[in-house]
Amino acid sequence: MCGIIGIISREQVADRLVDALKRLEYRGYDSAGVATLEDGTLTRLRAEGKLVNLAARLADHPLKGTIGIGHTRWATHGAATEANAHPHATPRLAIVHNGIIENYRELRTELEAEGIVFESQTDTETVAHLVTRELERGQSPKDAVHTVLQRLEGAFSLGFLFNGNEDLLICARRGSPLAIGEGKGEMYLGSDAIALSPFTDDIRYLEEGDFAVLTHDSVSIFDEDGRPVTRPIRKSVGKAFYVDKGNHRHFMQKEIYEQPEVLSHTLGAFVDMSSGRTRIPDGQDLDFSKIRRIALSACGTGFYAALVGRYYFERFAGIPCDLDVASEFRYRESPLGDVDLALFVSQSGETADTLASLRYAKSQGLKTAAIVNVQESTIARESDFVLPTLAGPEIGVASTKAFTCQLMALAALAIRAGVDRGVITPERELELTRTLTEAPRLANEAIRLEEVIERLARDMATKSHALFLGRGFSYPLALEGALKLKEISYIHAEGYAAGELKHGPIALIDETMPVVVVAPHDRSFEKTISNVQEVAARGGEIILITDASGAASGAVEGAQMIVLPDMPEILTPIVYAIPLQLLAYHTAIQMGTDVDQPRNLAKSVTVE
Ligand code: F6R
Q1: Most CB within 10 Å of its CB: which of 8, 108, 296, 408?
Q2: Where in the chain is the domain with CATH 3.40.50.10490?
Q3: How far is the CA of 300 from the centre of ligand 1 (A)?
Q4: Which residues form the Glutamine amidotransferase type-2 domain (predicted)?
């Protein structure tokens, strides 16, 4: 996650760019940079480390100019050096970027074959050269950007400044947020409204796939096909509060939509994106080679993430795992004989039962690690190893983006563990981490199914009960889907391992019982589908969440379907969580419940 900013004005902009970057520094502070047009000519200044370093350089070498872009970086592709700092530039333009360009390797190879020399290891520089090539082929800046956007895969936002053109900024978003601010004779672009809050409260949010052309006096927005579109101006509450809902109705919806971005941020903490190698964040020396057994523990949604984690560690690293809800682990007094690591999962880092379990594990002399979203929390402070999810503040009480980031962290850790133990070859490691980089794009594709899911939710809202089924990697998802539905819509829901159905719950099936089945076309698919046939034979109403191959198999006649793209197994828990979140969200909206603060719940459960 990086922060981007752009200003087109009639006054000097360098100081204001830095000022806006200060408000974006929470998004990353490995390096920072600005570019302006001094008398129409592109000039830029970049510095490694925090923004103060850039500010100090600017004090020594002020950049003039009334138009500019700026960036604060959280390194993914390439080390946190000045050469990798944004803006990246060619003689024709400068660019700032947030997110991941998934197919940058192919694009870079293509450009290098044409003799283009790269100055950095970033994925961003590829985009700079691609747009330059289109400009040199005679396209206008707008057309050049549009042409290049169609070649990019991934989830990202971009800002462009063109050499020699003091009345033009272009920006684009796909999967990462981007706000456009309107002032008097000035226009702004930024990663969020807070960055723009000292300049204006009049904010437009670009929608998925949009790109925009900004001049001093106009904003023209186009959809991904290049058709002009209108996006309404909204009054930002950025001044009042650090987090606002943007153009979303609830924090929960906003947080669901943030997943492509925060997943890439979390991925970047565990994978060095330029080498494709896994790493333990902050250089901590967590070495899995001697770990014989892991004890996993957490509460609620964190527990379901840990359950996926068990599948990951066992499958990819061959490490057996014990798993307990923390409220049981703390009292079970389990002999921890061959356990070498106790691993806790918590968004808040303050959950009383998880904290007590952590203290119990320490009292037994175990090494402890915590996957935690709030870095200053007690659990983070008391664990031997802190493994951050970089989901950002989660305000909605029902956990969404923290969950998928926990899964991302667990997947990357399991790969790391496999490498440490010699179970995964270096080639397989690269293959798996490359697969993980597809998660932000696939998460975005899942979000695009919102309309289909909203229609299904209208029917779900008329029900009193629901069953969720899944097998293998999808079993924890069935549990999480049921938890999401019950906590925000108050509809009674149960999650089951699909194979368990016939051992009792099948007695519940009749035509009033919706059954949500999580079934990617993986090694469990056929087995899950035979369980679904058992439901269909008894008149149960089926919602099948599957992929293109699963849908094409035509295995369940009459089922309502939510169809995701095909994807490797390691990604399915992360991506399939999103339709389940959206189903719960839209059902709750239909029911008129308080989505962000459902009754009887609290975001951080600091009591037993
Ligand atoms: C459900 C939910 C809760 C939390 C649980 C643990 O949507 O948010 O089940 O997952 O209370 O909280 P943390 O992760 O903060 O330890």
Answers
A1: 408
A2: 248-437, 445-594
A3: 5
A4: 2-217
Is 321 designated active site?
no
| pLDDT: which is higher, 327 or 76 | 327
Q: Ligand 1 center to residue 369 CA distance, Å?
A: 18
2 assigned to active site: yes
Q: How far apart are CA 209 and CA 198, in angstroms?
A: 27
The pair of structure tokens assigned to 554 is 């035509």
Per-residue model confidence (pLDDT) at position 243: 55
Ligand 1 atom nearest 400 alpha carbon:
7
CA distances from 310 to 263, 316, 328, 560 (A): 20, 10, 17, 31
Shortest CA distance to 531 belongs to which of 499, 493, 496?
A: 499
What are the CA-CA distances from residue 309 to residues 202, 341, 418 (Å)?
43, 14, 13
Please report the atom of ligand 1 found closest to the CA of residue 397.
Answer: 8
Within 6 A (CB) of ligand 1 lie 299-302, 346-348, 351, 354, 398-399, 483, 487, 604-605
The class level of CATH for 248-437 reads alpha beta
Residue 491 CA to ligand 1 centre (angstroms): 19
511 pLDDT tier (thresholds 50, 70, 90): confident
Nearest Cα to 389, choosing from 259, 487, 252?
Answer: 259
- CA-proximal residue: ligand 1, atom 5 (nearest): 300
Spacing of C-alpha 232 from chain mean position: 25
Exposed / middle / buried, residue 18 (Cβ in 10 Å: 0-12, 13-18, 19+): buried
What does CATH list as the number for 445-594?
3.40.50.10490
Asked if 564 and 520 count as a contact pair (C-beta separation under 8 A), the reply is yes
CA of 299 to the centre of ligand 1 (A): 6
Q: In terms of Cα–Cα distance, which of 400, 95, 99, 116 is closest to 250?
A: 400
What is residue 241's predicted lDDT score, i.e. its pLDDT? 40
Atom 10 of ligand 1: nearest residue by CA position? 301
Catalytic residue among 2, 171, 299, 321: 2
Tokens 């400068």 correspond to: 94
Range 351-356 average pLDDT: 91
Q: Where in the chain is the domain with CATH 3.60.20.10?
A: 3-241
Q: What SS3 state is found at 481?
A: helix
Correct CATH for 3-241 of 3.40.50.150, 2.40.30.10, 3.40.190.10, 3.60.20.10: 3.60.20.10
pLDDT confidence of residue 242: 45
pLDDT score at 263: 94
